[in-house]
Amino acid sequence: MEKEKPVTIFLADDHPLLRMGLSLAFQAKDTIRVVGEADNGFDAIEKIKALVPDVALLDIDMPGLSGSAAIRVLRKLFPDMKILALSTYNDEQYIREAMAAGANGYIMKTVDIDNLVEIITCFHEGREIVSPYLLDLGISPQQRPPEDDGAAFGLTRREKQILKCLAEGKDNKQISATLYLSVETVKTHMKSIFRKLDARSRLDAVTKARRHRLLE
Amino acid sequence: MEKEKPVTIFLADDHPLLRMGLSLAFQAKDTIRVVGEADNGFDAIEKIKALVPDVALLDIDMPGLSGSAAIRVLRKLFPDMKILALSTYNDEQYIREAMAAGANGYIMKTVDIDNLVEIITCFHEGREIVSPYLLDLGISPQQRPPEDDGAAFGLTRREKQILKCLAEGKDNKQISATLYLSVETVKTHMKSIFRKLDARSRLDAVTKARRHRLLE
DNA sequence: GCTGATATCCCTCGAAAGGGGTATTTTGTT
DNA sequence: AACAAAATACCCCTTTCGAGGGATATCAGC
Q1: Is residue A1 part of a domain?
Q2: DSSP assignment, residue A145?
Q3: CA–CA separation, A167 vs A185, rounded Å?
Q4: Do B120 and B165 belong together in one domain?
Q5: What is the rounded CA–CA span in Å between residue A185 and residue A168?
Q6: How many distinct structural domains can be found in chain A?
């Protein structure tokens, strides 16, 4: 049997402990080699551009640039790179978001290590793995990101920040404290968000934001 | 220098990868010895009852019995055990919840491994570590759990129905119309839901429900 | 019988939300 | 410099929430 080159993989996750777990799990396998790590989306993109690994394993929930946003960028830079989203949640919206951003797969952090290794090697061999869960949702991998959402909903930077706070369940007072604004200003922005999203309540706004992947 | 017995520690987290990371990090230190692991709250309680470690490190977000609920139970069984909550979120409410359940400390998963080791050894030596963050929230460790022993989430059928309506963005009036109830009844159930989920707003309730996969 | 859990309904009251304005300052782009 | 867009802040107002109190009725289980 010929000796194959190991699959090179890049890890991005904001939890050092988890990265260590992954690294060590892969070290034990000579078919996979970890070539780099990052703890946020920005860093991940920069390093991946430099390292060009076979596979990028990106956590969805990272500070700064989120995994989904990073995936979107990477998918444009490397149309053929195998990108796997890693996440704590099996939330349907998160999954759709990641897949829409251009991920080739979505993996739960509850995954067993051997399964993960198997998934990665299969991916590298060109076989697409579509879990029954993804099929249930009617999602198939390798979708191209729907023509750059640039327009979004015309939300400004500030409005997106506030929307994000909103999605975290904060009330106006907490949001004002988080962003160092007056409550009145938050209310003003909130009105703009509601108008742009055609939402009638904060819950409605968050639901619509999730649906349209505005939370990145 | 005399040779001390290593601190025995129990790990509970539903992510095998993270547990592996922790285990390996501790293996490198001869001052800490991992005596057991679990991937859910029920299992953790059973094993901890059998093993009686010096320190229990429990993830807050686990399927089945959550970390906070497990902490509450363990605190009653072992009033003096050092219990540390581990979490992805630096959400004030989560922190308060864990501390109220009887945790001695709250640790973010973004923690550096060396810091974690230091924290644990300090704890074992009897020194309480109160992070500036906890102080900001006016929280001090070693609080006794307030009797409230609501096991899992224990939502009733009706409460689940209302929670679902809530997640759809309905207000109390719409919910009452949907379920043929008076608004007052909806409010009563809503209060129960808030209490059980420890939510402070409807958005918060929905967020927590999503996180704990209560919406299906 | 008693108890506990569930479900239903009612009241008050202060705090937040939500909708309508207007106005100033900052920032970015012609 | 001129202009547009964004960000900030405040006013008014009504409705809805959410936290306190209660209360009654049913049904299961001991």
Answers
A1: no
A2: P
A3: 18
A4: no
A5: 19
A6: 2
Nearest to B24 among A24, A61, A204 (CB): A24
Four-CA torsion A68, A69, A72, A77, nearest 10 degrees: -130
Residues A175 and A110 placed together within one structural domain of the fold = no
- Which nucleotide across the nucleic acid strands is nearest to A189, CA versus C1'? D7
Flag whether A181 is in a domain. yes
pLDDT tens for each residue of A78-130: 887 888 888 776 655 567 677 777 888 778 777 777 777 777 777 666 555 55
Share of chain A above pLDDT 70, in %: 75
A21-25, A54-58, B148-152: which range is least confident on average? B148-152
CATH code, domain carrying B206: 1.10.10.10
- The mean pLDDT of chain A is 76
Contacts of B210 in chain A (CB under 8 A): 89, 91
- At residue B137, the pLDDT reads 43
Residue type, B11: L
Any idea what the Cα angle at residue B34 is, between residues B33 and B37, rounded to 5°? Answer: 175
Of B20, B202, B213, the CB nearest to A113: B20
Q: Does residue B76 sit within a domain?
A: yes
Q: Which nucleotide minimizes the distance between its C1' and the CA of A205?
A: C18
pTM exceeds 0.85 for this model: no
Domain range spanning residue A82? 7-136
